[in-house]
Structure formats: structure tokens, C-alpha cells
Amino acid sequence: MKESKPSTSGYIVKSVDKPISIDGNWDKPEWQEVEAASIALHMGPEPEKFIPKTQVKLRYDKDNIYGIFKVEDKYVRCVVQEVNGNVSSDSCVEFFFAPDTNSPLEYFNLEINCSGVPLFHYVTVPRKEFKKLKPEEIEQVEIAHTMPDKVDPEITEPVTWFIEFRVPLALLKEYREITTPAPGVTWKANFYKVAAKSSNPHYFTWNEVINPHPDFHLPKYFGKITFQ
């Protein structure tokens, strides 16, 4: 049986002249200048109660990758407060990226719940061979969040929340060689929105993933982010 091929999404990452202040403000000029990518393709069954609207934007400079997520959500829950804990069980956004063009199946996964708690791993073989970045290393990743530090009980009414982050390229280089972002360079990547243990469980992805059950750790289905 011939394997079906997914469509491949692309996103243009524009450079920025000066460091972006990480404060969770979607409307500041640095983000108004760039287009958003939509995380709208569900894996597994559609959520029964509500479909969140999730958007993400990226930028870069010579030292950092910057990103911001906007989530128009309901049934928001967030209880994990431990770095490298099971944040995907909460209302959570994720950025998976392969920063070496010679090794597109080896990737970092940065997962951040709506309270700003991160998980950050470097993966060489999905679910089998990976390194957890140390908490003191993850502290180098600057994160802003707009929700409380814990969301329990669940918020069932409509709420919009934001996650903004800055990842130093030097941190990535501690784990592997990377293809430094520059005009024309393309990394493989995907973005996700998940809430595995809310009352409205769901798994959404930016680039199409063809799999019988939700699985974000399938780098062959990453899309392309191209630096401009």
C-alpha cells in the first residue's frame, strides 16, 4: 500500500534589527510586521466541545529565535509546574524544530504550557534517544505568559492567552551543530496545540501529519521555516 504524502506548509521567518522584549504582547510593532501561521489541523478525533484557534509567529536575529503564540481557547487547564514535566497534559503550545539542515530528523522539542512552564528536549531518535536540557540551561530560554501560574479549576468560558519566548542559538549549539539562521536557510519544523488532560482533549498541528493516532514526534512530517 502506497503511503500518502502530506501537504508541506511553509513559513517565512523575518529578521529583526534589535532584541525583542519578551512580554507576551502580540500587538507590539515587532509582531505586527509579520504574518502568523495557523495551527488548525487536528490529529485524531475532533474535540467534542470546542476547537481552539491558535496562531504563531517567529522572528530571528544573529543570537536568538523569537516566537509568540496566540490561543483563543476554552476549557483551559494548567497544573504542571515542574520544568520538563508533562506539560502537554495541560493547555499547551509546542515548537519542534530541526536546526541542522544535514540532519532533518534530529530535532529539539520546546513545549510550554499556558502558565509558562517549559519542557525542552533534544531528540535523535523519537521516543527512544533524547536528552533533557538541564533546568539551569532551560532558564536561558526567556518565556512570558499571560495566564496565572496555575489554572485549576478549569476555565470553561472563552479566554485568549499568549506565550512568547526567546531561544538563544548558543544554547542549541551546546547539543549539536546547527545551520545558523540567515537569509535563504530553511529548517524543518512543526507547531502544535494540545490539551491532553483537559475536559476537551485535542491535538492540533500546523503541518499535516498522517498517522492513525495523535503523535507529534514524527519529524518526517515537519514543514519548512525559511529565514529571510
UniProtKB/TrEMBL annotation:
GO terms for biological process: carbohydrate catabolic process. Pfam families: CBM9_2. One of its GO terms (molecular function) is carbohydrate binding. This is Carbohydrate-binding domain-containing protein. Residues 49-227 form the Carbohydrate-binding domain. InterPro entries: Carb-bd_dom_fam9. Coiled coil: none annotated. It comes from the Bacteria. Gene3D superfamilies: 2.60.40.1190.
